[in-house]
Structure formats: structure tokens, C-alpha cells
Automatic annotation (TrEMBL):
<dbReference type="InterPro" id="IPR028168">
    <property type="entry name" value="KASH5_CC"/>
</dbReference>
<dbReference type="GO" id="GO:0051653">
    <property type="term" value="P:spindle localization"/>
</dbReference>
<dbReference type="GO" id="GO:0070840">
    <property type="term" value="F:dynein complex binding"/>
</dbReference>
<dbReference type="GO" id="GO:0007129">
    <property type="term" value="P:homologous chromosome pairing at meiosis"/>
</dbReference>
<feature type="domain" description="Protein KASH5 EF-hand-like">
    <location>
        <begin position="7"/>
        <end position="61"/>
    </location>
</feature>
<keyword id="KW-0175">Coiled coil</keyword>
<dbReference type="GO" id="GO:0005640">
    <property type="term" value="C:nuclear outer membrane"/>
</dbReference>
<dbReference type="GO" id="GO:0000800">
    <property type="term" value="C:lateral element"/>
</dbReference>
<protein>
    <submittedName>
        <fullName>Uncharacterized protein</fullName>
    </submittedName>
</protein>
<dbReference type="InterPro" id="IPR028170">
    <property type="entry name" value="KASH5"/>
</dbReference>
<feature type="domain" description="KASH5-like coiled-coil">
    <location>
        <begin position="70"/>
        <end position="168"/>
    </location>
</feature>
<feature type="coiled-coil region">
    <location>
        <begin position="77"/>
        <end position="156"/>
    </location>
</feature>
<dbReference type="GO" id="GO:0000781">
    <property type="term" value="C:chromosome, telomeric region"/>
</dbReference>
<dbReference type="GO" id="GO:0051225">
    <property type="term" value="P:spindle assembly"/>
</dbReference>
<dbReference type="GO" id="GO:0034397">
    <property type="term" value="P:telomere localization"/>
</dbReference>
<dbReference type="GO" id="GO:0090220">
    <property type="term" value="P:chromosome localization to nuclear envelope involved in homologous chromosome segregation"/>
</dbReference>
<dbReference type="GO" id="GO:0034993">
    <property type="term" value="C:meiotic nuclear membrane microtubule tethering complex"/>
</dbReference>
């Protein structure tokens, strides 16, 4: 149908030719003739504007509606309008649910990034636990060395006691002859004992400092493990919320599919009516065909919206599966952290035992020193040595 774009008018014969092609009727027969007479009463093929065409069509439709054969068609049109309104409302609700699902999708992506960051922190905690285990091994070796030194110190104290006994015996026999030799021997032994006690004190202090450091690292690991468990609980709650939203979307999609099936059944019933009454007027069939053509795009748009909703639902389901995998990884990392914590606690207990043994050995050394100092000859010798060192200073 050619349209005069500059003026906005179409000839009446062109309009009737278009209607004839659409309805397969002659413009000089039936109700199309009345429409042609209303558009061009003088039969001069006048140009028809859009407003005149709409007004004339309204008048022609009102005249046609007065006949009884259009009542069934009007009822079906009303039903189709009602169905169209209902489907449009469902389409709007589906669009809203799609927007909500997109928001939940964004929230899930943010939560997954947070979970990944927490997984990285958990991995770092495992690396720290490994380093702590290595430090504990070093502390064990150092404690073994300190124990060996303490054993040597105890052996030296035993020898000192034996030498002290021999010294007393020799002093009783001959104080003037063996005094110098005894002084030199006692001086060497005392210097060695003092050196060994100082080394034992230093090693005990170093081991104590390492034990304190290990205790601090253990408390940090426990705090990180508690934070990881708290974040896991939050992630599980958010996953439950996401599953609830996915279930709601699935219910809405099922409702929409049921509505589509009902509309398809209604269109099938209309086709059955046309097959049962083949003698209905051709204009009646053309009107139904126009109504079907008008409702077809609406059904296609609803179908596309349903497909989009299903795609978003699949994406949300995939995101939920990824989040579940991340939670499983968190469980595994928590188990590793728990094992590392148990190892650290066992190592700390061993360190405490070794430190207690070192303290006992130091107490025994101090007792031996006091016993040596209580003897008069050794005490006088130490006083002379202190005076000599003070004079040198």
C-alpha cells in the first residue's frame, strides 16, 4: 500500500485493495462494499487521511457489531484481551524477579571474591604453620644441645665435687706443698664451670624467647582459624538465601509456562471451533486471523522472557555450586589449620618441659657454686682473684 509521506494520505482504492488481499474478499461484495461506500461515497477514488480512516473503521465496526454473528467473536476477543492483560502482569512480575536475580547474582560474585580472599588467607596461615613447625624443629635441636651442655655441666660439677674432696684431703696432709697446684686446678675448673653455667643461662634465655614467639604465633593462628569459621557460617547463610531465591524463580517460571500452555490450549480450541463450523462468514475468519496475528508477538515475547529467566536461573545455580566448592575448600583448610594447631601445642608442651629441665639444672649449678664458695680456701682464692681483676681495671 503506497503512502504519500509528505501529505499523509492514501487513496481509497489502495486501502480496499489491501483489505481484499488480507481478507480474500471482493470489495464490491459483502460488508467491504459498505466500507468502500463509507470511505468513498462518490466513487471518485478520493485520498483518505489517517483520522478519517480510523473514524470510518470505528463506524463500520460498530455497524458490524450490531449483527448477531459477531457476538461470539467479541466474546473471544474479550477473553483474549483478559489473557493478554494477565500475561502482561506476569511478564512484569517476571521482569522484576529477573532484576532481583541479577542483584543476587552480583551479591554472589562479591561473596565469591571474599571467599577467595579468605581462602588465600587460610593458605597463608598454613604456610605460617609450616614455618612455625620448622622453627619448633630448630628449637628442639637447640634444646637437645642445651641438654647435652647441661649434662656436661653436671658431669663437671661432679668432678668439681670430687676435686673438692681431694682438695680437702690434700690440704689436711700438706697445705704448704700442694696449695699452688690446687689453686691452679681449682681456678681452671671454676672458670670452666662458670663458662658452662653462663652458656646454659644464655641458651635457656634464647629457648624461652623462642617459646614465647611460638606461643604468639599459635594465638595468631587460632584467631585466624576462628575468623575463617565465622566467615564460613556467614557464607552458608548467604548460600541458603540464594537457594531460596532460586526456588522462588523456579516456581515463577513454572507458573509462566502453565500460563503459556493455557493460552496455547485456548488458541487450539478456537481452531477447533472454526473446523466445526466451516460455514461461518469469511469476514469472521479474517477477523480471527487478525486477532491471532496480533497476539502472536505477545506470546513470542513471553517465551523469550521465560527463556531469559531460565538462563539467569542456570547462571545463579552455577554460582551457587561454585560457592559450595569454595566452602568445601574452607573446610579442608580449617582441618589443616587444626592439625597445625595441634602440632604447635604439642611442640610448645615439649618446649616447656625442656625449659623446666633447664631451670632445674641451673638451680643445681647454683647450689654447687654456693657449696664451692662456702669452703674457706676456695673463697679466699676467689677474693684474691677479684682483687686482682679490680686492680687491673
Amino acid at each position: 500500500m503506497e503512502l504519500n509521506v509528505n501529505v499523509g494520505e492514501v487513496q481509497a482504492s489502495k486501502v480496499m485493495q489491501y483489505l481484499q488481499d488480507m481478507t480474500a474478499q471482493s470489495p464490491h461484495q459483502g460488508k467491504l462494499k459498505t466500507l468502500y461506500d463509507m470511505l468513498d461515497p462518490e466513487q471518485k477514488d478520493h485520498a483518505v487521511t489517517r483520522d478519517t480512516f480510523h473514524s470510518t473503521m470505528r463506524m463500520w465496526i460498530s455497524q458490524c457489531c450490531q449483527s448477531s454473528e459477531w457476538k461470539d467473536l467479541l466474546s473471544t476477543v474479550d477473553e483474549l484481551k483478559h489473557a493478554r492483560q494477565r500475561l502482561s502482569e506476569q511478564n512484569r512480575s517476571l521482569l522484576r524477579s529477573m532484576a532481583q536475580s541479577e542483584d543476587t547474582n552480583l551479591q554472589l560474585t562479591l561473596e565469591i571474591t571474599q571467599l577467595r580472599a579468605k581462602l588465600l588467607s587460610a593458605q597463608r596461615a598454613t604456610v605460617r604453620a609450616r614455618s612455625l613447625s620448622e622453627e619448633l624443629d630448630e628449637a628442639r635441636r637447640a634444646l637437645k644441645e642445651s641438654q647435652e651442655r647441661l649434662v656436661q655441666a653436671q658431669a663437671s660439677t661432679c668432678t668439681l665435687e670430687e676435686l673438692d674432696e681431694t682438695l680437702t684431703l690434700l690440704a689436711e696432709k700438706d697445705n704448704s706443698i700442694c696449695k699452688r697446684d690446687l689453686r691452679e686446678e681449682v681456678e681452671g675448673k671454676l672458670e670452666e664451670a662458670i663458662r658452662q653455667t653462663e652458656m646454659a643461662k644464655k641458651t635457656a634465655a634464647i629457648n624461652w624467647w623462642r617459646a614465647l614467639k611460638v606461643e604468639e604465633d599459635r594465638t595468631k593462628a587460632q584467631e585466624e582459624a576462628s575468623q575463617a569459621s565465622h566467615s564460613r557460617d556467614k557464607a552458608m547463610e548467604r548460600l541458603q538465601k540464594a537457594e531460596a531465591t532460586v526456588q522462588e524463580l523456579q516456581d515463577k517460571v513454572h507458573c509462566l509456562q502453565a500460563a503459556l500452555r493455557t493460552t496455547s490450549q485456548q488458541t487450539g480450541n478456537d481452531e477447533g471451533r472454526e473446523a466445526a463450523f466451516p460455514k461461518v462468514d469469511a469476514s469472521h475468519q479474517s477477523k480471527r486471523r487478525d486477532v491471532g496475528i496480533a497476539t502472536a508477538p505477545m506470546e513470542e515475547s513471553v517465551g523469550r522472557a521465560a527463556e531469559r529467566a531460565m538462563e539467569t536461573w542456570r547462571k545463579v545455580e552455577a554460582m551457587v555450586n561454585r560457592a559450595v566448592k569454595a566452602v568445601d575448600l574452607l573446610h579442608v583448610s580449617e582441618g589443616r589449620i587444626r592439625q597445625a594447631r595441634e602440632r604447635v601445642e604439642a611442640a610448645s608442651e615439649r618446649v616447656e618441659r625442656v625449659l623446666s629441665k633447664a631451670v632445674d639444672a641451673e638451680a643445681k649449678l647454683s647450689e654447687v657454686e654456693t657449696r664451692i664458695l662456702e669452703k674457706p680456701e676456695v673463697g679466699s682464692f676467689l677474693l684474691v682473684q677479684e682483687e686482682a681483676t679490680a686492680a687491673q681495671r
